């Protein structure tokens, strides 16, 4: 009986050690990633971001302006066939306006779509202070992304949204995400890859190219950090 008792005790210690090692791996990857992109102190100073970019969708070049005020609102403006539409997400709701699709006024987004998109209002990102934000992270081992060895983490946000992120094992940059989104009433898997990382004057590192997602390839031309943003732009207007 003693031998069985000791065996069970030993097994418990082994399993506890494995669990502790995995937790340590998650935190180590997260901490090294944050350090690689400029550090927590620099990112906590980011209150607003404005990007000018262009997307290539089915051979068509689409100008894009993205403005975010931390925890308050986000507006994405895009011009197609000479008409400018937008998507707005705030801490209270979300709206789409696509005049090139026949819309004459902004329409409210489904509650579930708004809930999942609101994670993007956090300019410090999901990993900084992730435990306090209610995000759960699981280490899924290593994987290969087009020849690059990566650490693989699964994130479950407080909103319930799930996302798998891949981090370059050589520099800890986040180079790929895979998530599930709802499009036209159907759940689809969306993969995005990030490249051309650059260090901004504010000391943070940001990707300048994104491939995949719902909008094809996007290249960021300029990024402005902490410029004043009038919150009235987050009020839908046709």
Distance between the ends: 77 Å
**Coarse morphology:** globular
Flag low-confidence runs.
18-22
- Report the total helices: 3
- What is Rg? 21 Å
Taking the sheet with the most strands, its summary is: 13 strands, antiparallel
Look at the helices and sheets and give the structural class. Answer: alpha+beta
Oligomer: single chain
Binned, the helix content reads 10-25%
In total, the number of strands is 13
Order of helices and strands: HHEEEEEEHEEEEEEE
Q: Strand share of the residues?
A: over 45%
Strand order of the largest sheet: 6-5-4-3-2-1-13-12-11-10-9-8-7
- Count of the separate structural domains: 1
Overall average residue pLDDT: 87
Task: Outline the structure in words.
By secondary structure, this protein is α+β, with helices and mostly antiparallel strands. It has a 13-stranded antiparallel beta sheet, covered by helices on one side. β10 (174-183) and β11 form a beta hairpin. Helix content is 19%, strand content 46%. The longest helix has 35 residues, at 2-36. It has one domain (2-57, 110-226). It is globular. It has helices at 2-36, 40-43, 111-117; strands spanning 48-57, 60-69, 73-80, 83-90, 94-97, 107-108, 136-145, 148-156, 162-168, 174-183, 186-199, 205-212, 217-225.
């Amino acid at each position: 009986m003693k031998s069985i008792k000791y065996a069970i005790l030993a097994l418990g210690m082994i399993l506890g050690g494995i669990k502790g090692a995995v937790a340590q791996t998650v935190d180590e990857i997260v901490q090294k990633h944050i350090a690689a992109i400029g550090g927590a102190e620099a990112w906590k100073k980011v209150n607003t971001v404005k990007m000018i970019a262009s997307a290539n969708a089915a051979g068509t070049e689409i100008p894009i302006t993205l403005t975010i005020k931390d925890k308050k609102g986000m507006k994405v403006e895009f011009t197609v066939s000479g008409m400018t539409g937008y998507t707005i997400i705030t801490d209270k709701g979300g709206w789409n306006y696509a005049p090139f699709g026949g819309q004459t006024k902004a329409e409210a987004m489904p509650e579930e779509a708004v809930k999942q998109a609101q994670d993007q209002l956090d300019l410090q990102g999901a990993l900084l202070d992730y435990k306090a934000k209610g995000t759960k992270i699981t280490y899924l081992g290593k994987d290969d992304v087009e020849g690059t060895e990566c650490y693989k983490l699964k994130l479950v946000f407080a909103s319930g949204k799930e996302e798998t992120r891949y981090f370059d094992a050589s520099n800890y940059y986040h180079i790929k995400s895979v998530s599930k989104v709802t499009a036209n009433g159907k759940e689809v898997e969306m993969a995005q890859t990030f490249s051309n990382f650059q260090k901004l004057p504010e000391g943070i590192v940001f990707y300048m190219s994104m491939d995949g997602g719902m909008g094809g390839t996007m290249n960021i031309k300029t990024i402005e950090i902490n410029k004043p943003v009038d919150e009235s732009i987050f009020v839908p207007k046709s």
